[in-house]
Fold this sequence. Notes:
Elements: E1 2-8, E2 13-16, E3 21-23, H1 27-30, E4 36-38, E5 44-45, H2 49-52, H3 73-91, E6 99-104, H4 110-118, E7 122-128, H5 131-140, E8 145-148, E9 161-167, H6 176-186, E10 187-198, H7 203-210, H8 228-237, E11 240-246, H9 255-270, E12 280-287
Parallel strand pairs: 3-4, 5-8, 6-7, 6-9, 7-8, 9-10
Antiparallel strand pairs: 1-2, 4-5, 10-12, 11-12
Helix pairs in contact: 3-4
Amino acid sequence: MYNNKYFDRTSNRFLDLELDGYPLEEWERSFGSAKFAKHPKGFYVFLPPDKLLANDEYAEADPYNTEQNLNSQFQRRRMDLTFLLAREAIANMDSINKIEVLDLGCGQGHITEYLGKELGSANFSGLDYSISAIEYARDNYPDIDFAVGDASQTPYANDYFDLVICNNLLEHVSDPLLLLNQIKLICKPGGYVIITTPSRFRFENLLRIIRGKPVKLMSSSHVTEYSVGQVIELLNHGGFQLIRHLSRPIAKGNLFVKSLRELFRFYLSLIGSHHELESTVFYLAKMNSHG
């Protein structure tokens, strides 16, 4: 049973979902001859067997506590602004078929499910490195096609997705251009990407710089963090044109800190800077037509 979604680039052919996969318990022995493993819960595993346990960051629990904090200001902003940009992208699409959306680095699928409900006109897929995260996602959101795989070597066919969403993934990868090239490969011509990533020079880090201290990463698991200008440059080099970026303030701090933040924001507006002072910035970009 061949399909037009899953594709093996080593053999340059679409995968037969009946014949090319082996049961998960045979994955280690069959790796090489089998193209993927079939998990008992019904999803596909494309990550090599030696990487499954080594990269299962959700094995004990969700390290980001997403489910427990879904109603926090941070998570609500994350979901709402991602939805806002996704709705804008879909509104600009001219497609007679149902829109295909991929949540790349979907974790346990909470945001994937939220977006799928809010954007009911689209088919949603999710890919993550962690098999435990996808087991949870499959149990809780069975209507979404989740899979285990590497975001830099996805198992999807060229030109398949209309929109790829990367929520807080860019800061975790060592080669962001490799990631963007993979996204460009699986995006349809003129497709869109949404990237959410921490701002390297957010307000708190600007205060550290003023005091002569180095910038501080939001998490020890981050490889690095990027300024707004760096993300725009990465998108340009990756074959995407920025449509817009935005953020939304989360009110915190005393009156002095809030006043200082507003002073910074006023100064940035005076000089026409594209910089964002907030902790996280959201980007919508379109693949270049020549790419």
